[in-house]
Amino acid sequence: MAVHRGKAPVLAALGLAGCIAAGAQAAPAERQTPSGYPVPRYITLKFPKVNARAGPGEDHKLRFIYRTRGLPLQVVAETSEWRRVCDPEGQVTWVHKRVTDGRRNVINMSGKPAPLYRTPKPGAEPAAYLNVRALAGLARCDKGWCKVKTAEGAGWVRQGALWGTSEALQCR
Predict the structure, then answer these.
(1) Is the pTM of this model over 0.85?
(2) Which CATH number applies to 3-14+106-158?
(3) What is the Cα–Cα distance from 17 to 12, expressed in whole angstroms?
(4) Would you list the DSSP string of 89-149?
(5) In CATH, what is the architecture of 41-104?
(6) Per-domain residue ranges of the chain
């Protein structure tokens, strides 16, 4: 990753085209799922090449191939083996559970570099900027702020400022 050094470095972006198509909506009530985990929830892609299918099974049409390891996805439904996911561009598709990871990442889909603040409070000084379509690991969220980390540094963002930090349903 390329990093711009200085008082507030700019963290590198990954090549993911497009922007989020759907706005945040209220999260539905949690229900029992085959995995035992709540829906909606976030996961990431475990591999750099993952098939996205039209339905839950190898016999369903291949719609496209994700090519970003660590891409955050929101699980919106599931079967025992498959996850129906919403991606940062608003596309809804099915992926097999074996290609997913429970770790949480976030991505900047805002269209401009996102400031990562030194402390979780209004008016804090930026520690760095996360470029558009750049990934970061999500450490935790607390009281409307989320701590994110990259190889180059860490900082705080307002919850909902990066795709993957909102608990609301991102797609239908």
Answers:
(1) no
(2) 2.30.30.40
(3) 15
(4) TS-EEEEEGGGEES--EEE--SSSPEEEESSSSTTPPEEEEEPTT-EEEEEEEETTEEEEE
(5) Roll (2.30)
(6) 3-14+106-158, 41-104
Amino acid at 104: R
- Cβ atoms of 133 and 20 within 8 Å: the answer is no
Residue in the structure block whose two tokens are 């520690």: 127
pLDDT tens column, 32-86: 799 999 999 999 999 999 999 999 999 999 999 999 999 999 999 999 999 999 9
Question: Which amino acid would we find at residue 148?
Answer: V
Q: Which residue is it, tokens 């996360």?
A: 130
Q: Dig out the tokens for 90 from the structure.
A: 């608003």
Which positions ≥6 away from 23 have C-beta within 8 Å?
none
Sheet containing 82-86: give its strands across. Answer: 62-66, 50-53, 92-96, 82-86, 72-78, 41-45, 100-101
